[in-house]
Amino acid sequence: MKLRIRSSRSVVLALTIAMLMTACAPVFTTATFEHAQADPDTRPWFCDSTGGGGHGGHTSHHYDGIVKGELDWNDCLYNAVSFDRAVDYVQQWPTAGDAEADGFMRVVPYAEGMGTHHRRVDASNIDDVFDPGEPEFLMYDGNGSNAELTGMAWWVESVGAPPEGFRGDNDWWHQHLNVCLTQSGTWIGQGYTPQQCAAVGGEHFPNDNWWMAHAWILPDWELHFDVFQNHHPCLPWSGPITDPGDPCWMEAMHGGGHGG
User: Fold this and answer.
1) Which 8-state DSSP code applies to residue 47?
2) Domain for residue 48, yes or no?
3) Which domain holds residue 52?
4) What's the pLDDT tens digit per position in 102-133?
5) Quick one: which of 232, 240, 219, 249 has its CA closest to 147?
6) All residues at 6 or more sequence positions from 115 whose CB lies less than 8 Å from its CB, including other chains
7) Domains held by the chain: number
8) pTM (2 d.p.)
9) Percentages of the chain per state (helix, strand, coil), in multiples of 5
10) 135-181 pLDDT, tens per residue?
């Protein structure tokens, strides 16, 4: 969908059309519509990022000199509709057990700031096509079958540079290079040489042209200061923190230690 919004009136019209086109419960599209009416000079939280991509050394040099910030209304609308589609898609599998019963496998066990990474066993959706409404990875808050959905990730092949991805400059894609996987396709680690990986019985993947992006948009797991940050501060190694009074949620709303 390509819309060129040139005035406040056309913003409202385009948003109304987008709401009608969105599947069920268009939360982000509705929020965009309401924000555009109430305060057209600012943007809703998911269209205004202030983070630096995330911690752990994943931020790509391709974003040197780029500053995250407010999107224009056209890009905000596109992303809002995309987020509604993505949330609707991933909520088909609310627990890890649901996903695994429907052809997903846990590639990466629970990791700090992210949760698990589940993808389809046959990798049928892993390719060079970015579909904002169908992320390739599901992320859960633990390793058991009852673990709950916390996030999602897109994994796209793009040679030489990150994929175009979402609209605007806020979705900073990152890479996981020189990954070592077991023969069944589960995670051993990254940063391995082919020899090191072979020594532990794994299969080596350089991943030079593969890129990942997250969007923290699920209910109860929204990351307001930077919707596209790599890591969520309320997913420590000890397990998910759901208490809204915990300091990690102040960071999730306003930024902090993981934002640089």
Assistant:
1) G
2) yes
3) 8-254
4) 999 999 999 999 999 999 999 988 999 999 99
5) 240
6) 139, 140, 141, 142, 147, 150, 151, 232, 235, 240
7) 1
8) 0.87
9) 25, 20, 55
10) 999 999 999 999 999 999 999 999 999 999 999 999 999 999 999 99
Residue found under tokens 């699920």: 218
Domain presence at residue 259: no
Residue 228 pLDDT more than 80?
yes
pLDDT band at 17 (very low <50, low <70, confident <90, very high): low
Residue 2 falls inside a structural domain: no
Q: Where are the alpha helices (DSSP H) in 53-158?
A: 73-90, 96-101
Query: Is 76 part of any domain?
Result: yes
- For the beta sheet containing 210-214, the strands, ordered from the edge strand earlier in sequence to the opposite edge, are 104-111, 115-120, 137-140, 149-157, 210-214
Interatomic CA distance for residues 119 and 122, integer angstroms: 9
Say how many Å lie between the first and final Cα of the chain, rounded.
33
Residue 179, token pair as written in the block: 């990954």
